[in-house]
Amino acid sequence: MYLPTLRAQSLRLARRSASTGLKYEALAVGVPKETFPLEKRCAASPTSVALLKKNGIGEVLIEDGAGMGASYSNAAYEAAGAKIVSAQDAYNADVVLKLRPPSLEEAGSLKPKNTLISFIQPGQNEDLVKTLAKDNHTVLAMDCIPRTLSRGQTYDALSSQANIAGYRAVIEASNEFGRFFAGQMTAAGKVPPAKVLVLGGGVAGLAAIQTAKNMGAIVRGFDVRAAAAEQIEAMGAQFLKVDFEEDGSGAGGYAKEMSAEWHAAAREMLLKQCSEVDVIVTTALIPGRKAPVMIDAEMVKAMGSGSVTVDLAAEAGGNVATTVADQKIITENGVICLGYTDLPSRLARTSTDLYANNITKFFLSAGPFTTKVADEFLIDHEDEAVRPMLVLDQGKSTWPYTPPPPPVVEAAASEVVEEVVEEAPPPDPYQEYMLAARNASIGSAVFMGLGSGVQPPILATFCLSTVIGYYTVFGVAPALHSPLMAVTNAISGMTAVGGLSLVGGGVVPSTSAQVLGATATAISTVNIVGGFLVTKKMLDLFKREGDPDEHPELYAIPVVGTLGAYGIAGMSGLGDLAPVVSLASGLCCIGGIAGLAEQHTARLGNTLGQAGVTLGMGVTLGAMHPDPATALQIAGLLGVGGGAGYAIASKVGPTELPQTVAAFHSLVGVAAAATAVGEYVHLTEHGPASIDAVTNTSLYLATWIGGITATGSVVAFGKLNGNLGSAPLQLAGRDQMNMAMGAASLGAFGLFLTNPSPETGLLCLGAATGLSGALGVHMTASIGGADMPVVITVLNSYSGWALCAEGFMLDNPLLTVVGALIGSSGAILTHIMCEAMNRDIASVILGGFGEEAKGPAMEITGTHSEIDVEECATMLKEASSVIIVPGYGLAVAKAQYAVAEIAKLLNDSGVQTRFAVHPVAGRMPGQLNVLLAEAGVPYDIVEEMEEINPDLPETDVAIVIGANDTVNSGAQEDPNSAIAGMPVIEVWKAKQSVVLKRTMGVGYAGADNPVFYKPNNAMLLGDAKATCDALRNKLAE
After folding, report:
1. Which of 34, 101, 514, 866 has a 20 to 30 A CA-CA distance from 945?
2. Which regions span the lipid bilayer (predicted)?
3. From CA 582, how far away is CA 588, in angstroms rounded?
């Protein structure tokens, strides 16, 4: 058990409930003018005033002229809701927000017992703290924020101001330096780049490094903390090492004072650097201590004439021996030494904006973050951010803060058992080879069994096609997974070939076998025409302005020529070209799928797929020699089916793509089952002697796979279309039900293999249809909505294996090639999706088989922050890098066009903007890529999850639009989450994340998202389309 115990926790709660917060509506917040010499900043900006008023603060009192140094007029504050008052009125407010520590005179102006939030530096300003204590003030020091607290980073004013100081230091240095920072090669001669040395790898140092690198200088960095090396090098600078082992990392993220031996080694290294570099920027500070001298007088003498030093520690004594606070001096050897202490004030407006944001958000968090009372200000000693910053509490000293000891784990002596971790034994080569030999033996036995009843040519065709499908799909870009499934779906419409083999009886079919064949032909044609048209529409979206014209219609020439040659050869008795045409059909289908590997070949792939299906249908019709009446029936079936497919596909947009593909899969399943049953009826009537074990196996498998594909696809359609709930169906005894239906299917299969009477055989096929249909419904319904992308790829694979079974049944190599190609490619795509979602492939395919019930999900605590469109637009404008993460909500709202314009506006204004797409974003793989392409987003700024995740920690703003599950940190943080273990886009690692969502509700998987409540996240709630339109308009202003 942990200490403190329940009693201690209850005491904390009692103390909180006894505390009375101050209602915002009754509060007056004052902001006096800063009077420190050279200070131009202010503790409030018009934006922060508006935020205070938005949250319900009664009055915001700004001293007359307080913002003039930052170029903010009184009118700007008044427009935001503030009142302009005298200095004394500002100090008389209930809460006073300040930037510089107040002077003793200003401290005396404060109303007794009010609250002051400001930089205080209590360790150096003891007299000030005593003065404030006399009048029972409550004082919170902005310089005491715990920097290692993730939430505290939002309020870290030291960092925000240091960032500006580091930037401005390099600007001041470049102004004094007599050369370009970047090297130049001109007709007049070559100018070498400046060499800049930055001492200190904190916020200011890193900002200086980045600025100098951006200006083209050669940059070197140095810090006593070993951990800073990686950050300095990540900014593109060379990290300098001292030839002495000692780590300078101190508490709270600061540096500690180093030993004399280390200083001697560092001096030797720095003396050499001073003779080489042109500019030195120093940022070394130790809290509460005089700044260490890093560059002594001898080092300054070693620098060249015209070199520059900028000392950011000038106010604390300086890191450079020649520094004079607030002055520029030039040494005897011509080195310019800048000791400006007002560097942030030299960018007063930006400094004011950032500080005002820091202090305002801290003030608004004090109370609501822990008490959950949204409109009350309260000093809560249990708040991890407030307590370390609390210097005085109603005059009582509470500084320095001593953090509580870490929790103590109690355990009974009898329970203390030293855990023995057994090392895994080294791999046994013999066992590894034995396992491989066993698997090879099983495979060999299967092939021997197949070879005893299957003709070698068709078996070889099957094996080679499976291997080709395997390698073809592994090369397909994730962005093209949606078109890939659409084109394989269209090619699987080759079940029409099986249906055509049963068509007959004249204009109207006259037997049950003919009716089944006609049905299979018609619905397969729906798949063919609809699938290819959907594929074409998707691929056309990826076209970019300037891409060369394409003329796929010209491929009709070789197709018509091949079929014409086939017809002429057959009629003139020149030989049977059917095998050659079938081979050409299979090769075109292979080329169709392989073409989807790259953007520049994808549309050619779709054309080749159409050519392959056309050749296959043509060679089948040529082999039939139908009479005129039957030919008329075939034309009608193809016309009706093709017309229906065209009508359906014409209405399909990117949003409806997943459910449309699922519906098309169901048609393939019905066609395969209908053809198998019809073929059995035909054989029992006209050729019972030809029915053997291979034929029966093929008939049964085609029926069974067709049934599970048809019903599973219908359920998937219902879930994707919103007709059925996304939650998994979890019936008691779910696995046992599936196993019982599987056993019954095997029993019926065993009986069917005995070649029973036609009546019994039809009963067996009927049982196969019913049992597989029930399995399809139950297993698909048992799979949660989050796994629907995988279900679609599984069904895609099933449709291929159904077609392959038809090929064995009809002894048709073409169907075997195409079926094995689609089946294996769908299986590999399923594997890729399961890897992307960290899902067990067997569990997904078997409807969650073997999954144990998880415990309750992690309880999410805290409050979320909300922003409006204007604040979001400001964030985006001020960022240097933005990543947009779209989700299915963007598709539903049809907001892709506005988002595309937002990205263009940001990129045009110099903000690097990219898109991050999860492999299973949307309801099927690649759907969001298609959606963005539809809106004209160039595909070269759309990146996959694994490519962009490493960039997120360096990204200023990650904005999530309509996504939830794919950015849910619970997948990594909560083992009981519905999506635990699923790789996600780590938007919470960005410096700031914004989630644009209609409500705070859960995503498609039904899992709560902790990202919403993280301190660096803000929610922008509302309709995606309306909000994106407003955001676009605001950015365009």
Report:
1. 866
2. 458-477, 484-503, 515-534, 698-717, 737-754, 760-778, 814-834
3. 10
Measured CA to CA, the distance from residue 990 to residue 1018 in angstroms comes to: 12
What is the chain's length?
A: 1037
Report H helices in 137-192. 157-176
211 within 8 A of 171, measured Cβ to Cβ: yes
Residue 99: CB partners within 8 Å, gap ≥ 6?
Answer: 34, 39, 41, 42, 43, 118, 119, 355
Q: Say yes or no to pLDDT of 29 above 80.
A: yes
Can you tell me the mean pLDDT for 759-763?
Answer: 89
Q: At what angle do helices 896-908 and 1024-1036 cross, to 10 degrees?
A: 20
With a threshold of 0.70, does the pTM exceed it? no
| CA 982/CA 972 separation, integer angstroms | 8
Give the CA-trace dihedral at 999, 1000, 1006, 1009, to 10 degrees: 140
pLDDT score at 414? 38
Instruction: Measure the CA–CA gap between 673 and 768, rounded to whole angstroms.
Output: 10
Give the span between the Cα atoms of 196 and 218, in whole angstroms.
6
- CA dist 306 and 331 (Å) reads 10
Distance of CA 23 to the CA centre of its chain: 40
Q: Cis ω on the peptide bond leading into residue 287 (within 30° of 0)?
A: no
- pLDDT digit string, tens, across residues 1009-1024: 888 888 888 888 888 8
Rounded CA gap, 126 and 289, in Å?
14
Could you tell me which of 926, 927, 908 has the C-alpha nearest to residue 654?
A: 927
Q: What is each CA distance from 214 to 127, 182, 280, 359, 468, in whole angstroms?
A: 44, 9, 16, 30, 49
Residue 379 · residue 138 · CB < 8 Å = yes
Return d(Cα 665, Cα 517) in angstroms, integer: 18
Contacts of 546 (CB under 8 A, 6+ apart): none
* Distance, first Cα to last Cα, the chain: 58
Of 484, 752, 713, 743, which Cα lies nearest the Cα of 596? 484
400 preceded by a cis bond (ω within 30 of 0): yes
3-state SS, one letter per residue, for 418-451:
CCCCCCCCCCCHHHHHHHHHHHHHHHHHHHHHHH
Catalytic positions are 888, 923, 1004
Cα 773 to Cα 744: distance, rounded to the nearest angstrom: 13
Q: How many CB atoms lie within 10 A of CB 568?
A: 11
Question: pLDDT tens for residues 905-921?
Answer: 998 888 899 998 887 66
* 954 DSSP 8-state letter: G
Alpha-helical (H) ranges within 754-868 are 758-781, 788-810, 813-837, 841-845
List the domains of the chain with CATH numbers.
21-144+366-397 (3.40.50.720), 159-183+191-344 (3.40.50.720), 509-652 (no CATH), 655-849 (no CATH), 869-1036 (3.40.50.1220)
Q: Which residues pair with 409 in a beta bridge?
A: 2
Angle between helices 46-54 and 348-365 (to 10 degrees): 20
Distance CA 780, CA 792 (A): 10
Which helix (H) or strand (E) covers residue 29, if one does?
strand 28-31
**987 contact partners, CB below 8 Å, separation of at least 6:** 883, 885, 952, 958, 960, 967, 993, 995, 1011
Q: Please, what's the b/e burial string for 921-957 (b: 16 or more CB within 10 A of its CB; e: otherwise)?
A: bbbbbbbbbbbbbbbbbbbeebbbbeebbebbeebbb
Structure-block tokens of residue 51: 């935020």
Upstream peptide bond of 4 is cis (omega within 30 degrees of 0): yes
pLDDT (0 to 100) of residue 7: 36
For the chain, the helix, strand and coil percentages under 3-state DSSP, each to the nearest 5: 55, 10, 35
- Rounded CA separation 864/76 (Å): 29
DSSP 8-class letter at 574: S
Widest distance between CA atoms in the chain: 116
Q: Which amino acid is at 491?
A: I
pLDDT digits (tens, 9 = 90+) for 931-943: 787 778 887 788 8
